[in-house]
Specification:
- The complex is a heterodimer of chains A (about 325) and B (about 400).
- Chain A has about 325 residues and is an alpha/beta fold.
- Chain A has one domain: Rossmann fold, CATH 3.40.50.
- Chain A contains 10 helices and 19 strands.
- In chain A, helix 1 packs across helix 7 and helix 5 packs parallel to helix 6.
- The longest helix of chain A has 15 residues.
- Chain A is globular, with a radius of gyration of 19 Å.
- Chain B has one domain: Glycerol-3-phosphate (1)-acyltransferase (3-Layer(aba) Sandwich), CATH 3.40.1130.
- In chain B, the strands form 2 sheets. Chain B has a 7-stranded mixed β-sheet, with helices on both faces.
- In chain B, helix 6 packs across helix 7, helix 9 runs parallel beside helix 11 and helix 11 crosses helix 14.
- Classes of the chains: A alpha/beta (about 325), B alpha/beta (about 400).
- At the A-B interface, strand 8, strand 15, helix 10 and strand 18 of A face helix 8, strand 4 and helix 9 of B.
Amino acid sequence: MTNVLITHADEPLGRKVVKALFHDGEVGNILAVGGGPPPRGFDRYLGDSGRVQYTRVDLAKHRPASELFRGSAFRSAEIDTVIYLPRHGATSSAAAPIVSGLPERTAETRLVLQNCLETASVQNLIALGSAFVYRLHPGNSNRLDEDSELDLDPDVIPQIRSWIDCDMIFHGEVHNDRMRVVLLRVPTIVAAGGYVYLNPSLEGRPGLRARALGYDPICALISDKDVARALLAALHVRNSGIFNISGTEAVPLSVLSRWTRRVSIPVPGPILRWIETTTRMFGIDARQAADGDHLRYGFTLDTSRAEQELGFRPIDRIGLARAGDGTVRLETASV
Amino acid sequence: MTATLTELDSSVAGEIVEEGLSSKPALGRDPFTELSEPDPFIERLNKLQQSSPAVRRESQRTILRSAHEPTPRAGTSGRTSTKPEHSTGPQRPIRLPLRSWATTPTLGEIELDDLKELIDHLLSDHERRVLAGLAQLVEGEAPYDRYGFSPHVLKRAFPIFHTLYRLYFRVKSEGHEHIPTEGPAILAGNHGGLLPFDGAMGIVDIALNTDPPRLARAIVDRWAGSLPWVNIFYARVGQVIGTRKNFADLLGDGQLVMVFPEGIDGIRKTVAQRYRLQNFRVGFIEQALREQAPIVPMAYVGTDDQTPILYDIKPLAKRLGLPVLPITPTFPLLGPLGLLPYPVAYKIVYGEPLRFHERFGPEGADDPRLVRYLANQVRRSVQLLVDRNRK
């Protein structure tokens, strides 16, 4: 039986993972950590004989994070596995973009890893990373495996820079003798209703988005439920390492924008660069990336390592479907 | 008369055919002059042949079988095993299938919808069946494959290229029986003409003359991926940027991959170099060995006449970041229109598959000298096809 701590459980992806963990027969106690009040959907879990607990902690700050790992809730739940989900909801980073001189996501990752290493009972750390860390070459057909080059260009946009920092932080502990570390790199995550997570150019609320004129990169997709399944698969095997996971669908950015109720406007490349430079110069925390190779060049992921070592294969189809109220919207469905 | 492809194939097994070769090299800088000297690879091959007569007999039988019998094909209902059995060749490396690609139905199995759109009226039933068959190549409900190929866009583009195929370039072709009807294969051809109409005509020809229809995935240079709009069009009609990973994945999926191993050197040949193949890159040989795929040599005749280059201003092209900056009878005289191809007649010929992987196995890909030697063999095969069909 595995006892799990999961971060950002109050956000959309976290809720899906908590649900999957709750219904998994091999998972015992679940300590869900979030930045806000418990979601209403957690009522049915929290009443279940104390198996699920929820606590509010700001993981980007040193003292609250440290107190979480040394607290009574952590000890009583006998946590041996930490599932680290990064912040991905609509409120991410707007409140506290910089913590201790680091982007919030990076600071949080560093503290979670540090506390996991210092807590002897934690045997497994499973983290969700981003596949946007890879360097993209011109063209729509970047097929990337785990050994592909990371984009270490100093001019890379800040959103992706923070992902790369997090990736490198976990990368350094993948061969840790005491603790098993698994890092899952995911492409754009979509959820029923047209929600998009962890995509530098589409995340956030629906609305206008810029894309590079003359380019329409192919975007690999994965459903939120498949991400939860992949995390469970990583939980139940004994392998450590870095794994690409992805769904079966890949669509161009313009189509994905349309599916997810974003309006994408083709903008000439020089203007995009000017917008990106200007916003960066004036310290504007733009929620969406205005420039970068990922707006021009597409990629898909080679997931054969995850299939072989984790036994994970996506089962969700992603596409437009007519909802009960007659509206056509993005849906994910298991096949 | 030069050596036939069967002879060339057997030359790889150690029996070098010399009597059919002209005394004067057909190529400007013939890499095969080294064949006049004892070649350690030939010696090694001869040793291999002598040491295992059973292997040799089975290889010859395999060659004969592949030349005269169509490869068994996958079916949609009640079809049986699809892989030809080569018991003596090196085993294909075990790899997890990346995707279970939908089986393409044969043309006879495709039921056509009613004529819905203008495009449907422009195409014959045969061509509509071909397009319907190609649409089966995309798995899942999303209308794109992982490289951005869209049957919908292909359907829109097909009438244009088909018109060029029939009326402008008046393409004639032969040797379609050598294109495997299923499984991975590499089509290696000569490159010519400033604009890549040779690849487009090859793709149309293969789709129209294979049953079930196959989409050849042309490997394109990386710089094409950085061109606005061009990159989108290439991706939507099934062309793929030439990286090792893409190449291996396409072959791993059992797809037909079209390469022009001359690369950019092929399209910047001047009039004096017409139909003289430039040095071949070797990457496709490595992939053929690793992925156990046969190589089908294909020759284009007519492509080198479509835009005769009188002079290539290389220093200026390099400074401008262009692959070539030509002077032709019409360019720069007529501006960009001068780059359009003349209405020359194309002839496309497919040669017998070269099954290097059956003799050398995946480990052969790690031997640079062997890989270079085999690339030269392919080059010679294509050159012979070109020479034979120009007359």
